[in-house]
Structure prediction request, 132 residues.
Amino acid sequence: MRPLTTKQIAAVEFVGRYQLDHGRSPTYRQLAKHLGVTLPTAYERVGSLITKGWFRTKANRRNGPRRVIDFARGVSIADLPNSIERILTMAADLIDDAAVSIRPHDPIRAIDLISRADRIRADANIARTNKW
Prediction:
């Protein structure tokens, strides 16, 4: 499964938590409202998550032809911490690279970047051990 962007993670997290709290999937309109985006953007975001294998859509039996969002078969909210961990680790690596490149010019800023990368790596470790 391909890594997710932070915006996609927000969508996956909302759908998972909504399902846990309400026992059903959210609609596109509910997703758009929660994410603070337009309805077409919510459709686009779900479309990219369908392409990546995270979501599928199904007909909403109660409300006729409306479509609701559901996790693809074999995918669960428990898979999310692994993606978060990968994204955070990549971010920490990029910050480390930036710190190395600016160290000769601005050593104080380089030290700040290194400590920021360490905090991000700590968050990645929390995501790895977090059991949803």
